[in-house]
Amino acid sequence: MRFHKAESAFFVFIFVILAAGLVMLHAYGYLQSRVDRFTQPSRIADIVYLNRLLFATGVLQATALFFGIFFIYPLIRSQVKEEAKLRVMTESLSARSETLEHAALTDGLTGMQNRRYFDDALKEYIEEFRRVGKPVGLMILDLDHFKQVNDTHGHDVGDEVLRAVAKCLKDMTRYHDVVARLGGEEFAVVAPNMDAELLARFAERIRKAVAGMSVMSGNVRLKITTSVGLAVWNRKETAEDFYRRADRQLYEAKRQGRNRVCA
Fold it and tell me: Do β-strands 214-217 and 186-192 pair in parallel, antiparallel, or remain unpaired?
């Protein structure tokens, strides 16, 4: 059993009182055994007075010992238990807060980052790369004809498609890229330190990887394609303007026939 520091200090306090009491008890017995050696009235009076002092001190120590054991220690023990409960409660609340924060920034269906996380991350990347003078690439992806998948095969199959695309994006991207589901069938990738040429190649690899996937629905093998809009930050625009520029390129890819990359 482990003791709290306050309890340990209390036990030391009790030990000291007991030790002092034993010393005084010994002194009292020693004086009592030698009273007959002192025959002078003045010395006898001093011995009696000293005995009374030792006795009174012993009574006070016994009172302190009694009060400490039956009043102080229960209070200390109660405070230790309350402190332990508060510690457990604090740890539980902290863990719950982290879980809620994680849930608030994570897409429940795919397990990837959500729109809130994406918006914050895009702003932070822009601020950081503004200082170092490096490019930031952005791609917005939207699955082609996804509504037909839901209408034809049901939302459960649609969810499987979204999870499969999310896994593909995670596998294709780098550890420091931000990959997020923005909502519905729309995804985004923030690719730091990529210029227009590198970003276009990167996006084309992702487009081909998605097009090469197959999602089974019973005996039906579904093929998915995606349209991708690209933009490289011009070091002047805000995160919102940067996103809108990539989004315009996405709509251009849709207008040109889908399953393509536009920059």
Answer: unpaired
